[in-house]
Write a structure and sequence with these properties.
single chain, mainly beta, five-stranded antiparallel sheet, three-stranded antiparallel sheet, 1 helix, 8 strands, globular
Length: 136
Protein backbone atom coordinates (compact mmCIF):
# COMPACT_ATOMS: atom_id res chain seq x y z
CA UNK A 1 0.00 0.00 0.00
CA UNK A 2 1.45 3.38 -0.97
CA UNK A 3 1.46 6.28 1.44
CA UNK A 4 -1.49 8.58 0.59
CA UNK A 5 -0.23 11.69 -1.19
CA UNK A 6 3.23 11.51 0.39
CA UNK A 7 2.00 11.91 3.97
CA UNK A 8 4.61 11.02 6.58
CA UNK A 9 4.57 7.59 8.16
CA UNK A 10 5.62 7.15 11.81
CA UNK A 11 8.57 4.88 12.56
CA UNK A 12 7.81 2.67 15.58
CA UNK A 13 10.40 2.54 18.36
CA UNK A 14 10.88 0.09 21.21
CA UNK A 15 8.55 2.20 23.37
CA UNK A 16 5.87 2.75 20.71
CA UNK A 17 5.78 -0.61 18.89
CA UNK A 18 2.82 -2.03 20.92
CA UNK A 19 0.87 1.19 20.25
CA UNK A 20 1.39 0.95 16.49
CA UNK A 21 0.60 -2.78 16.49
CA UNK A 22 -2.72 -1.92 18.13
CA UNK A 23 -3.43 0.83 15.61
CA UNK A 24 -2.72 -1.59 12.75
CA UNK A 25 -5.48 -3.79 14.25
CA UNK A 26 -7.69 -0.70 14.67
CA UNK A 27 -7.36 -0.86 18.47
CA UNK A 28 -6.40 2.20 20.49
CA UNK A 29 -3.87 1.12 23.12
CA UNK A 30 -2.54 3.16 26.02
CA UNK A 31 -0.34 2.30 28.96
CA UNK A 32 -1.56 1.50 32.46
CA UNK A 33 0.66 1.26 35.53
CA UNK A 34 0.40 -2.09 37.31
CA UNK A 35 1.64 -0.49 40.55
CA UNK A 36 -0.73 2.49 40.85
CA UNK A 37 -3.37 2.13 38.11
CA UNK A 38 -2.43 5.38 36.32
CA UNK A 39 -3.24 5.53 32.58
CA UNK A 40 -0.82 7.41 30.34
CA UNK A 41 -0.21 8.44 26.79
CA UNK A 42 2.28 9.00 25.07
CA UNK A 43 4.23 5.74 25.58
CA UNK A 44 7.04 5.69 28.14
CA UNK A 45 9.20 3.10 29.83
CA UNK A 46 7.95 4.10 33.30
CA UNK A 47 4.82 5.44 35.01
CA UNK A 48 4.67 9.22 35.10
CA UNK A 49 2.67 9.14 38.34
CA UNK A 50 4.75 6.81 40.53
CA UNK A 51 7.89 6.16 38.42
CA UNK A 52 7.28 2.38 38.44
CA UNK A 53 8.65 0.46 35.48
CA UNK A 54 5.63 -1.85 35.67
CA UNK A 55 3.59 -0.38 32.82
CA UNK A 56 1.44 -2.54 30.59
CA UNK A 57 -0.46 -1.95 27.37
CA UNK A 58 -4.26 -2.02 27.56
CA UNK A 59 -6.97 -1.46 25.01
CA UNK A 60 -8.59 1.93 25.56
CA UNK A 61 -12.31 2.50 25.12
CA UNK A 62 -11.62 4.76 22.15
CA UNK A 63 -14.05 7.34 23.52
CA UNK A 64 -13.23 10.86 24.58
CA UNK A 65 -14.12 14.55 24.45
CA UNK A 66 -12.58 17.45 22.57
CA UNK A 67 -10.59 19.58 25.03
CA UNK A 68 -9.27 22.10 22.50
CA UNK A 69 -8.92 22.39 18.74
CA UNK A 70 -7.89 24.53 15.82
CA UNK A 71 -8.95 24.54 12.19
CA UNK A 72 -6.02 24.41 9.76
CA UNK A 73 -6.48 26.38 6.54
CA UNK A 74 -2.84 26.41 5.41
CA UNK A 75 -1.39 22.91 5.06
CA UNK A 76 1.87 22.18 6.86
CA UNK A 77 3.18 20.58 3.65
CA UNK A 78 1.93 19.86 0.14
CA UNK A 79 1.03 16.33 1.29
CA UNK A 80 -1.84 17.80 3.35
CA UNK A 81 -3.09 20.34 0.78
CA UNK A 82 -6.06 18.22 -0.27
CA UNK A 83 -7.17 17.92 3.38
CA UNK A 84 -7.63 21.63 4.20
CA UNK A 85 -9.53 22.77 6.06
CA UNK A 86 -8.93 20.12 8.73
CA UNK A 87 -9.17 19.98 12.50
CA UNK A 88 -6.26 19.34 14.86
CA UNK A 89 -7.58 18.65 18.34
CA UNK A 90 -6.56 17.70 21.83
CA UNK A 91 -8.89 14.90 22.96
CA UNK A 92 -9.20 13.75 26.56
CA UNK A 93 -9.72 10.01 26.55
CA UNK A 94 -12.32 8.43 28.82
CA UNK A 95 -9.41 6.86 30.74
CA UNK A 96 -7.81 10.28 31.37
CA UNK A 97 -4.82 10.76 29.04
CA UNK A 98 -4.93 13.34 26.27
CA UNK A 99 -4.08 12.78 22.61
CA UNK A 100 -3.36 15.19 19.78
CA UNK A 101 -5.31 14.06 16.73
CA UNK A 102 -7.48 15.03 13.80
CA UNK A 103 -11.26 15.19 14.01
CA UNK A 104 -12.79 13.70 10.89
CA UNK A 105 -16.28 12.78 9.72
CA UNK A 106 -17.87 16.20 10.07
CA UNK A 107 -17.36 19.72 8.73
CA UNK A 108 -14.63 21.53 10.72
CA UNK A 109 -17.03 24.30 11.79
CA UNK A 110 -19.19 21.71 13.61
CA UNK A 111 -16.41 20.73 16.03
CA UNK A 112 -16.81 22.17 19.53
CA UNK A 113 -15.18 22.01 22.97
CA UNK A 114 -16.65 19.09 24.90
CA UNK A 115 -17.77 17.26 21.76
CA UNK A 116 -17.97 13.49 22.39
CA UNK A 117 -15.80 11.57 19.94
CA UNK A 118 -14.86 7.99 19.07
CA UNK A 119 -11.61 6.70 17.58
CA UNK A 120 -11.39 5.71 13.92
CA UNK A 121 -8.33 4.79 11.88
CA UNK A 122 -6.72 5.86 8.61
CA UNK A 123 -4.63 3.12 7.03
CA UNK A 124 -1.50 4.90 5.74
CA UNK A 125 0.36 1.71 4.80
CA UNK A 126 -0.15 -1.99 5.42
CA UNK A 127 1.86 -1.60 8.63
CA UNK A 128 0.79 1.83 9.93
CA UNK A 129 -2.70 3.07 10.74
CA UNK A 130 -3.22 6.55 12.20
CA UNK A 131 -5.87 7.16 14.87
CA UNK A 132 -8.31 10.00 14.26
CA UNK A 133 -11.53 10.80 16.08
CA UNK A 134 -15.05 11.25 14.74
CA UNK A 135 -18.16 12.67 16.44
CA UNK A 136 -20.32 10.19 18.36
Amino acid sequence: MATPAGKPVPVPTRETQPYWEGCRKHELRIQKCVACGHYQFYPRLYCTACMSEQVEWVRASGRGKVLSFTIVYRPVSPAFAADVPYVVALVTLEEGPQMMCNIVGCPPEQVYIGMPVQVTFEDRTEEISIPHFTPV
